[in-house]
Amino acid sequence: MSLPPGFLDELRTRTSIAQVVGRKVTWDMRKSNQGKGDWWAPCPFHQEKSASFHVDDRKGYYYCFGCHAKGDAVSFVRETENVSFMEAIEILAREAGMVMPARDPVASQRADRRSELVGVMEEAVKYYRLQLSTQAGAVARDYIARRRLTPETQARFELGFAPDVRQGLFQALTAKGIAPDLIVEAGLCARPEDGGAPYDRFRGRIIFPIRDGRGRAISLGGRAMDPNARAKYLNGPETPLFDKGRNLYNLGPAREACGKGARLVVAEGYMDVIALAQAGFGGAVAPLGTAVTEDQLRLMWRIHDEPVIALDGDAAGMRAALRVIDLALPLLEAGKGLRFAILPGGQDPDELIKAEGAEAMERVLAGARPMVDLLWTRETEGRNFDSPERKAALDKSLRAAIRRIADPSIRAHYGEEIKRLREDLFGTRGSRRGAREGGFAPRDGFAGGFTGGFSKGFGRERPPAQPLPTTRSTLLVAGDERVAEHLRESMVLGILAVHPELIAEFESQLERVVLTHPDRERLRAVMLAAAHVAPAEIAARLAAEAGADLENLLGLPHLRTAPPILKREDGALARLCLAEELAKLATERAVRAEVEEAMEDLEGLADEGLTWRLAQATTARERAKQSKLDDTSDMGEDRAALSAQLKAMIDGEIWRKRKN
User: Fold this and answer.
1) What is the mean pLDDT of residues 546-562?
2) Residues 106, 110, 112, CA angle at the centre, nearest 5°?
3) What is the pLDDT of residues 51-76, one digit of tens each?
């Protein structure tokens, strides 16, 4: 089977030889330089202990200084997997997500055709460069001079000019014996709808040759000299040579500069890249008339681990940055990220460099912000979070964005950073501290339960055992009315500890609930910090950071026998029980707050005599209820009379003061 060169080029672009080789060797990290794609390891082809096997990830080749084995990713797979050339291609293509071309007997003819198209493009570049120096190119030379591009820069980027004539290029190329079909297929000319002779696609424009990573001319870009032109910038169409979504302007020189330590700067257009390169920023590239694509982003990461997206500081530039964020989130990997340099005053790189020099551009690039900052800005800028509903909406959108990150480690770190920013915005840390200081604090920590009952021996009942000192001090013995709330708090944390997958779902409720003991606070802090990582990692963090507190919590008697704790595999039951406990906890505290507020109001209206009578009536009612429960006495008609008296007092609203 014959493969088209374009397929192999694309395969090499998508394949990292370091990743291919890394499956078979152990890298010597002391000798390797990951940032430059320079890797060293013991050779997999002969027995050795020293790291003499070298991989250049940027060039895509390996070489062993011991046994002199050398080659690319294809040859490495062939040698290590003992497969044929085509089988190695199929293995790499499958890993790169590429479909193998059909076994076409005319594939070699297509390869020849592609080579011919490259030759046509090179002839077009020569023609346009020559036209820039003619009298017709005077207007273009004046424009280039105003943009302060030096002759060296013009030669480096091979700038040219397309005269404003209908068939200038077409006639020049056909005069050299190039077939019209080749000229049209290369995207240099177009056929009119009436079927007439082809006409030049680029007319009255400065020409920017576009080359691939191997330096071959694959297309052209043009900048109109006429301010009234329909398109200020025009790119060549999709051709067998040119796929605009899989290439970058200035790719080859930028890759070489980044290999020498330069940062990769992604600008918006041709002139920005040229201005950056002339100012000393050799690692500058730009997309080709489209928004950044997934293939372009992966290509950037092949060149540099952390490209800087340098976008204009206007609204369009910000929209472009946000589109890149949405594209990059699912693709993030450890060590592969993005930073964003937003230029001041709506300027582009060319304008900033001309106005303030390369030093100003360097300051902007050095202050580039990580992607999480722009994600946070996008969700919060210009919005008011003065209600629980708006805060919940923010939480929902941020959670949805973070869930798009496939790498669990990166997702966890994004969650932690977003949580920090959220706490700074809402002052959550301070409110929690205030709740702890102003809330109810249990005596002696409310740790443990109680034992009671009686035992029998020799046919008669033994006297009940005296409670231990530790038992006397618990809230259960003290009869504190808030004991149930403490039990519910421990149940909530216990369910989340056993079912950590529920933490993210109930995160906002867990964050707001007021806990009444430092042990519970520590557990909650660990849970919230790990809300967006894998459940297994949450369990590991709890064990590592709050092991003693967790052990004490799960050792409580009412937790050891609770169904959602015992049935660890029943997530639905745990979810229902957790929601119920949180709802009851919130309800009980709300009711108590209302009662306390009502009592305060009542004290301000009633006199002391009425307060005493109501207190006596309440005491009698409680005594009657207890008598009924114990079934040891019966108040009979006295109880009924007391109830009637109390009802009459309430119906008469006797707490209201009467005017004399």
Assistant:
1) 79
2) 115
3) 889 998 888 889 988 888 888 898 88
Q: Torsions phi, psi of 60, nearest 5? A: 80, 30
State which H helix or E strand residue 411 sits in. Answer: helix 408-426
Alpha helices in 427-482 (DSSP H): 428-438, 469-472, 475-478
What is the sign, positive or negative, of the torsion defined by CA atoms of 417, 419, 421, 423? negative
Tracing tokens 């930073």 back to the chain, one arrives at 339
DSSP 199: E
Phi–psi pair at 133, nearest 5 degrees: -90, 0
Residues in Cβ contact with 380 at an 8 Å cutoff, skipping those fewer than 6 apart: 394, 425
Residues 185, 117: contact at Cβ < 8 Å? yes
Round to whole Å and give the CA distance between 413 and 429.
19
139 conformational bin, left if phi > 0, alpha if psi -120 to 50, beta if neither? alpha
* Distance of alpha carbon 356 from alpha carbon 333, whole angstroms: 36
The answer to whether the CB of 578 falls within 8 A of the CB of 495 is yes
For residue 506, the cross-strand partners are: none
Express each pLDDT in 414-464 by its tens digit: 999 999 998 888 875 544 444 444 333 333 333 333 333 333 333 344 455
pTM recorded for the entire structure = 0.55
Structure tokens of 137? 């190119």
Residue 566 neighbours by CB distance under 10 Å: 12
pLDDT tens column, 199-218: 999 999 999 999 988 788 99
DSSP 341-402: EEPGGG--HHHHHHHH-HHHHHHHHHTPEEHHHHHHHHHHTT----SHHHHHHHHHHHHHHH
Residue 210 CB contacts under 8 Å (≥ 6 apart), including other chains? 217, 218, 219, 220, 221, 235, 236, 242, 247, 249, 288
DSSP H helices, 230-278, are: 251-259, 270-278
Is it the case that residue 601 has pLDDT exceeding 60? no
Q: How far apart are CA 252 and CA 598, in angstroms?
A: 77
Domains of the chain, first to last: 5-96 (3.90.580.10), 107-242 (3.90.980.10), 251-367 (3.40.1360.10), 439-451+470-589 (no CATH), 608-660 (no CATH)
For residue 540, the SS3 value is: helix
Q: What is the pLDDT of residue 433?
A: 44
For the ranges 55-59, 103-107, 113-117, 533-537, which has the lowest average pLDDT? 103-107
Is the pLDDT reported for residue 139 higher than 70? yes
Alpha-carbon gap, residue 293 to 308, rounded angstroms: 16
Q: What is the dihedral of CA 322, 328, 330, 331, to 10 degrees?
A: 180
Question: Residue 637's CB: how many other CB atoms inside 10 A?
Answer: 8
Query: In degrees, to the nearest 5, what angle opens at C-alpha 349 toward C-alphas 371 and 225?
Result: 130
Which residue(s) pair with 211 in the sheet? Answer: 217
**pLDDT tens digits, residue range 364-417?**
999 999 999 989 988 888 888 889 999 999 999 999 999 999 888 899 999 999
CA distance 294 to 328: 8
CB-count burial class (<10 Å; 0-12, 13-18, 19+) for 157: buried
